[in-house]
Amino acid sequence: MSTHPFHPGLLKQIAAGHGTPVYVYDEATILARINEFKAHLEGIPVRLLYAMKANHCPPLLDVMRRCGLGIDAVSPGELELVLRLGFDPAHILYSANNMTDHEMRYAVEAGVTMNIGELSGLRRLGEAFGESDVCVRINPQIGAGHHAHVVTGGDRSKFGIPVEQMDRVLDVAARYDLRIVGLHQHIGSGILSTEILWNAAAVILETARRLNDLQFINVGGGLGVPYRAGEAPLDLAEFRSTIVASIRKFVASHPSKSLEIRFEPGRYFTAESGVLLSRVNTIKRTGSRTFAGLDTGMGHLLRPALYDAWHTICNLSRPDGTPKTYDVVGNICESADFFARDRGVPELAEGDIVAILDTGAYGMSLSSTYNMRPLPAEVWIHTDGTPELIRRRLTPTEFAMAYLNEYGRR
Ligand code: LLP
Question: Which pLDDT does position 1 carry in this prediction?
Fold first, then answer.
């Protein structure tokens, strides 16, 4: 049984000590991913941003800051959090979707660069803050991703200004004296093909030739990780020899003397660093199925229900049991509440502890308290292997009282 990168004994100890459900994150794995990626970018002037929507627990953001990463923030809440955690505003890109004027003002006054993906947004920025610096998000008309819901480029996508409207972008910028200092794109999420990433990168580089004063080109995130055994990871050596090599030549030929290349992955840095631990509450056999019902649900890990996403499930209590086929389901009153269907798992019994792997990205950050189930606890494993409880799970009483309090009731 692989519970990469965790020691099963440590996970069992955490489940016993803190109860379930609990998310566990491994700092060493996050550092390894960052360093591995950085090593493949040598030779180009680069700044890495972290797309904090993937996982914004404070210790993880601290790691990103200590490693010199900036931030891709997409809401005032995200922005407020990273400013409070000490990130340099110069290294934050504010890429909110469909911003209000109020939101724009907040971000501009905080000193972060705005990333605008709508012509009308660019006009509004110009009207309120003429002569300011801006980054423009283009839609290169290429999209990709592990599921249709995560594709953010192409004609059906709401994101970015279609690249063929670049003349209009330049007109608006000229009218309001906006300085286009950055060009950005992000075509989707969970991409394992370097060819697709390169096809899109080629579009933004071509577009960047029209902008002599650019300070950065942000080619987005979207780098995938393998979720299933046997699935090939992104080929970083090929990434380096194709995309990075072409970018190096491009930078040398661009008139801007201070051009920086940015990437903004979320999943790649964090997905494999996390597991969700849960207890099997119920084993139930019907005519055709065997259900294993857990003490967590789609509120805590939405990806299977939302994208039919695969997460490997390990039986920590009896890893060597004979595999049996289960529908592994949650404790939420919805039929979409499942983690795996027709999945082989070493035989499960009520009381067993399971680990749901690769849940460090878009696990906790996509969670909700639907059905009034408090969020999971979170445990951080330091690089020396020591686990630390970083967020407690509220008891149902605390949870209900906090809820009533929001309504001014007790
Ligand atoms: N930059 C922008 C502008 C984005 O919208 C995103 C993700 C990223 C960067 C980071 O993408 P990543 O490197 O993590 O693929 N909830 C989905 C993923 C949605 C991603 C949304 N945008 C999932 O669980 O698969």
Answer: 46
- Burial of residue 31 (CB within 10 Å: 0-12, 13-18, 19+) is middle
Nearest residue by C-alpha to atom 7 in ligand 1: 189
pLDDT value of residue 71: 98
> Mutation test of ligand 1: which of 37, 55, 186, 365 has the most ligand atoms closer than 8 Å to its C-beta?
186
Instruction: Identify the pLDDT of residue 2.
Output: 61
What is the predicted pLDDT for the residue at 257? 86
Query: Helix or strand or coil: residue 113?
Result: strand
User: What is the model's pLDDT at position 152?
Assistant: 97
Centre of ligand 1 to C-alpha 207, Å, is 23
**pLDDT at res. 5:** 84
CATH code, residues 271-406: 2.40.37.10
For domain 27-267, which CATH number applies: 1.25.40.20, 3.20.20.10, 1.10.1760.20, 3.40.50.970? 3.20.20.10
* pTM, two decimal places: 0.97
- 333 catalytic? Reply is yes
Per-residue pLDDT, 31 = 98
Catalytic residue of the set 57, 67, 135, 333 = 333
Ranges of the chain whose pLDDT falls below 50: 1
Enumerate helices (H) and strands (E) in the chain, giving the number of each.
13, 18
CA 186 remoteness from chain centre: 12
Q: How far is the CA of 189 from the centre of ligand 1 (A)?
A: 5
Q: Report the separation in Å between the CA atom of 2 and the middle of ligand 1, taken as the mean of its atom positions.
A: 26
CB 178 within 8 A of CB 172: yes
Q: Residues lining ligand 1, CB < 6 A? A: 51, 53-54, 72, 95, 150, 152, 186, 189-190, 220-223, 264-268, 303, 307, 361-362, 366
CA distance 241 to 50: 23
CATH 3.20.20.10 positions along the chain are 27-267
How is residue 187 written in tokens?
């075509």
User: Is residue 5 reached through a cis peptide bond, with omega within 30 degrees of 0 on the bond before it?
Assistant: yes
Atom of ligand 1 nearest to the CA of 267: 14
Listed in order, the ranges of the chain carrying CATH 2.40.37.10 are 271-406
